[in-house]
Write a structure and sequence with these properties.
The longest helix is centred in the first third of the chain and has 6 residues, at about 15-20. By secondary structure, the protein is mainly beta. It is built from 2 helices and 9 strands; from the N terminus they run ββαβββββαββ.
Length: about 110
């Protein structure tokens, strides 16, 4: 299991390479050339984009979901566990409609 943080400012979803390795999750590297991302801590980190064959988020199953993956997960520098991933806009735009209720902290998604 993993905790996801929804990040509407992230184009792609993110996972730690250590998380993928520690949990024996298979993936295919989409592009061998690493990119550089700048996040909350202002530090640049290199990442590669991968496709994870099967991902279950709650009761929703995704096939071939794209994630950016880095050796050192940027959020660890501000105290967030390596078992936390980011859900970016590539996740949200796969739905017809999304509503976030700030009073109940619920994200509702419609396919």
């Amino acid at each position: 299991p993993i905790t996801f943080l929804f990040d509407s400012g992230a184009g792609n979803s993110w996972l730690s390479k250590n998380f993928l390795t520690d949990n024996n999750i298979t993936y295919n590297i989409k592009d061998q050339n690493p990119g550089t991302a700048y996040g909350l801590d202002g530090q640049g980190i290199e990442f590669v984009t991968v496709n994870v064959n099967n991902v279950n988020i709650g009761s929703i199953q995704f096939s071939n979901m794209e994630f950016d993956v880095s050796e050192i997960f940027a959020l660890q520098s501000i105290g967030i566990s390596k078992e936390t991933g980011l859900l970016g806009m590539n996740f949200l735009t796969s739905f017809e409609k999304a509503t976030f209720n700030f009073q109940t902290n619920n994200l509702m998604l419609w396919e």
